[in-house]
Amino acid sequence: MDKEDIEYRRQVVNTYKPDVEKLIRYLPWLEEKSGSNVQETFEGSGIKGSSITFPVYDGTLMNFIREVQRTGLVDRNYPYIYSRHRIRTVKDELAAIERSGIREMDVLKGILSKYVLGGMTKGKMWTEAVYNRIFLNVVRKMKENLEFWDKPMR
């Protein structure tokens, strides 16, 4: 491993670590909620016929989304990551997450961004990301990559 490589990894760790540390506290919740629905439908009381239904999200999910939005982990150019890495399905996303090392942190960031930003207009994307373990696997993989090249995070 040459000096440039070591410097690059140190830079990646320094760039991502503060943001990932904010998100790892959600790992137990994401683990617990994987495979389950974290959205209910509010239909109003007694005025079903004329009222509009809308989703009501778990408070922890909303805190997680807000926390991600306050980090540098949201990339509006995520479609480029998807096309460059030929990611098209949830299965592709999960496989890309699994094989992403420290040099592919941009892939993890892109997948996270798709769901965080997409959920702003299509709320079901947030619940799908929890259900399909996308949020869980991305945060867990980011943590794992950083801890491999640095000390463990709490």
Task: Explain how this protein is built.
The protein is mainly alpha-helical and 154 residues long. It is 61% helix and 5% strand. The protein is built from 8 helices and 2 strands. The chain has helices at residues 3-23, 27-33, 59-69, 78-84, 90-99, 105-118, 124-131, 134-149; strands at 39-42, 54-57. It has a two-stranded antiparallel sheet with strand order 1-2. It is globular, with a radius of gyration of 17 Å.
What keywords describe this structure?
single chain; 154 residues; mainly alpha; two-stranded antiparallel sheet; 8 helices; 2 strands
What order do the helices and strands come in, and which of them pair?
Blueprint: H1 3-23, H2 27-33, E1 39-42, E2 54-57, H3 59-69, H4 78-84, H5 90-99, H6 105-118, H7 124-131, H8 134-149
Antiparallel strand pairs: 1-2
Helix pairs in contact: 1-8, 4-6, 5-8, 6-8
Summarize the structure.
The protein has 154 residues and is mainly α.
- For the record, give the distance between the C-alpha atoms at the N and C termini, rounded to a whole number: 28 Å
Shape verdict: globular
The low-pLDDT segments are none
Computed Rg: 17 Å
Profile the largest sheet.
Answer: 2 strands, antiparallel
Sheet-strand content, in percent, reads 5-15%
Structural class: mainly alpha
Got a strand count?
A: 2
Side-by-side strand order of the widest sheet = 1-2
Overall pLDDT score: 90
**Assembly state of the chains shown:** single chain
Number of helices: 8
Helix content: 55-70%
Order of helices and strands: HHEEHHHHHH
